[in-house]
Amino acid sequence: MAPCYLCPRRCGVDRESAVGFCGEGREMKIAKVMLHHFEEPCISGGEDGAGSGAVFFGGCSMKCVFCQNRDISRGGAGKTATPEELAKIMLDLKEQGAYNVNLVTPTHFADRITEALDIVKGKLNIPVVWNTSGYELPERIRALDGLVDIFLTDFKYSSPSLSAKYSAAPDYAKFAAPALAEMVKITGRPEYKGGMMTRGTIVRHLVLPGAYRDSIAVLETVADTVGAENVVLSLMAQYTPEFADEGFPELRRRITTFEYKKALARAEELGFDGYSQSVASASSRYTPDFER
Ligand code: SF4
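^ thats the input. predicted complex w/ iron/sulfur cluster below
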């Protein structure tokens, strides 16, 4: 972190005294800790399950113009925590019955989190989930081997112009594809116990308004890169226009059933297993309905 090259932005700033693109300095910041019931059912256990032990980190190395969590990702929300404090939080979540520890947007604190994971090694005994935007350096993912059991990763875009326009990351797919290959190399094919995932990689993709062709290209890239049979796909329809920044009029609507069905049909042709959503889930915001 001094200089910081933790993510593909490779800002090179000294985070002891400055912040980089992610908006975060030296101290790890935690914005929220909760038992989360609305991740994919094999992570959360459904509405009536014990829930996923989610730890939301402040800041983000992406700048998505449609971000639903901007208070956390850009708003500076959160309290600082040491690796020792994070280790205690993880063990507390386990005591509360969490199925797993779910590290949400961890990339820009990867080294601090790694310290915490080293502390709880051998004591946690529940899966560790790395819940990421997918904009990762492959070598950083490789360093998580032996510490992380499940990757819950977005694959947001294929097109450089779209990723530049909506997330200020023209090189998104250039990094997301090899990073995904490293994730699958670490986890192998999905494994479950009692319906809950114990090991594996889930690829999330949110279909955006006017961009279903890019969704199809993403699905093809994922299938070509790691093989559809080696991941669980979560094809999301829950895009909500209320969060879109000014200046993007094309994002001020929900996706249509036509757009979602086009992407879903291609996912089925490619042989993916996983979750789809009803387009109506876009109205329920944080409580998407997943269908296996
Ligand atoms: S983690 Fe933050 S400071 Fe480091 S390279 Fe990424 S955006 Fe820049």
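Confidence is low (pLDDT under 50) at residues 284-292.
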